[in-house]
Design goal:
The structure holds 2 protein chains of 2 kinds. In chain A, the strands form 2 sheets. In chain A, strands 6-7-8-3-9-10 form a 6-stranded mixed sheet, with helices on both faces. Chain A is α/β, with parallel strands linked by helices. Chain A is globular. Chain A has helices at 41-49, 71-76, 92-102, 109-118, 134-148, 164-179, 191-197, 220-229, and strands spanning 3-12, 15-25, 30-34, 56-61, 64-65, 77-80, 152-156, 183-187, 200-205, 208-214. Chain A is built from 8 helices and 10 strands. Chain B contains 10 helices and no strands. Chain B is globular, with a radius of gyration of 18 Å. Classes of the chains: A alpha/beta, B mainly alpha.
Chain lengths: 235, 225
């Protein structure tokens, strides 16, 4: 999948949350979305996900600009919210089945079991999701998107609730997802970790794109941008 | 066919959640029954006043009980931002509207199946043979209530004081349904048939069809606003 964002902007009243974003991503890109608090990262992710309408601009998938309300666009996008977007009173397995059916997927029992096994939740398949810890819910979200295979997967601060093993699981899944030609955009403040994983970094500052480059080693331009826009980061 | 399949999926999920939580149904049952007892203590329905008063009292009970159910209609979607998960998916917004309306209708129906006979028993009403016709009129009124209620429940979904706001916007807009249903029921109780109340029945049917269609068409704008 290819993604082209043109002149994307979102205003809340007189305040521009993001403005004039031009970004082109190629198949297989794993992008680190960085920026200080209030830079517009979450707004940008919500715009891509179609959860909010842009004030200006377009988002094109494989060369076709699709409106936020277009079901074809929604079918191609996933948003991994670490401990959200799951029904507490459905079991782990029922949550997966429900969302799979919404996306017109019909996973077999063995496929579901294998997916849950990969995120080490196979033994808790019949348990209510509300009984899981935040980290386990995040694992379930990983299983969900593993099953649904969206062309573009968006992640908003996924590291916060995961233990070391969970982080390995997530990173393994993201690498495998991109290896299939899919796209991943991950917003995170764990800069050192996310930079190791990504092949491209984008920095937003006050709603504008201030840096967008493929990863290099060494990366002096990133260091300079990072120093300017994220002076207290953990790089 | 996709919209019907998606409606079924969401409705099945909602019924399963309600079966497990029993929040809405139990509250509605108890509140409906409680209202009937309050009415029973407050009013003495003389035989000559029955036809005029019974439908109004019954509908008051349904309105208050139904509003409780509407306030809980999107509760599962509010928790864990599940509404965002649904909006993110390819789910047709019309299917979401139909599923929520049907779910609300089923809850109301279950309450009415208990409340209407209980009302007859409490007020010692003789005309049991009229119940099927009265129930039919009540069903049409309930469809109107659920259709409009689901739209407005979604409108007030993100409002801060939604429990207060919902009845404030719902009740005035429900006046045609309430009036038409009460008039139809009144006529049935007086004469044993719809008869003169046919225009009210047509109004009720028209209201149901129009708002059901409008709901399917505009629900994307309502729920994404």
């Amino acid at each position: 999948m290819r993604l082209a964002v043109r002149k994307l902007a979102k205003a809340y009243g007189f305040l521009w949350a993001v403005r004039d974003l031009h970004i082109e991503l190629a198949a297989g890109d794993l992008v680190a979305l960085l920026g200080p608090n209030g830079a517009g990262k979450t707004t940008f992710l919500k715009l891509l996900a179609g959860l909010i309408e842009p004030t200006e601009g377009t988002v094109a998938f494989d060369g076709t600009a699709l409106a936020a309300s277009d079901a074809r666009r929604r079918r191609q996008i996933g948003l991994l919210a670490p401990a959200d977007h799951l029904y507490d009173n459905l079991t782990v397995k029922e949550n997966l089945e429900f969302f799979a059916e919404l996306y017109d997927k019909k996973p077999s029992g063995s496929q579901l079991a294998a997916t849950l096994d990969q995120v080490q939740l196979a033994e808790r398949a019949g348990e209510y999701t509300g009984n899981l810890s935040s980290g386990m819910k995040c694992r379930l979200s990983i299983a969900k998107w593993q099953l649904l295979e969206p062309g573009l997967l968006l992640l908003d601060e996924p590291y916060g609730v995961l233990d070391g093993n969970g982080v390995d699981l997530l990173e393994g899944f993201l690498k495998a997802h991109c290896a299939k030609g899919n796209l991943v955009i991950m917003a995170s403040h764990h800069v050192a970790r996310v930079l190791k994983l990504c092949n491209r970094a984008i920095i937003l500052h006050q709603g504008r794109l201030s840096f967008d480059e493929p990863r290099q080693q060494p990366w002096p331009s990133f260091d300079a941008a990072f120093g300017e826009y994220l002076p207290r980061g953990d790089l | 066919m996709t919209i019907l399949r998606q409606t079924y999926l969401v409705l099945r999920k909602d019924l399963l959640l309600e079966l497990r939580r029993r929040d809405s149904l139990l509250t509605m049952f108890f509140f409906g029954t409680l209202l009937l007892f309050v009415f029973n203590f407050s009013f003495d329905l003389a035989p000559d006043k029955v036809a005029a008063m019974a439908p109004a009292l019954l509908w008051l009970a349904f309105l208050f009980t139904g509003t409780l159910g509407l306030a809980q209609l999107f509760q599962a979607e509010r928790e864990n931002h599940c509404l965002d998960a649904l909006l993110l998916s390819p789910l047709d917004r019309g299917a979401l509207f139909l599923a929520k309306t049907l779910f609300n209708f089923i809850l109301m129906l279950l309450v009415e199946i208990v409340v209407i006979p209980l009302f007859w028993i409490l007020f010692n009403l003789p005309s049991w043979n009229l119940l099927p016709q009265l129930f039919l009129v009540t069903l049409l009124g309930t469809v109107g209530f659920c259709v409009l209620g689901t739209i407005l429940s979604a409108v007030t979904l993100r409002a801060r004081a939604r429990e207060l706001l919902l009845p404030l916007v719902l009740f005035p807009l429900m006046i045609p349904v309430i009036l038409a249903t009460i008039r139809c029921m009144e006529n049935v109780m007086r004469t044993g048939m719809i008869g003169d109340a046919l225009p009210w029945l047509r109004l009720l049917l028209g209201f149901d069809v129009i708002f059901l269609t409008v709901g399917v068409l505009i629900f994307d704008r309502v729920v994404e606003a």
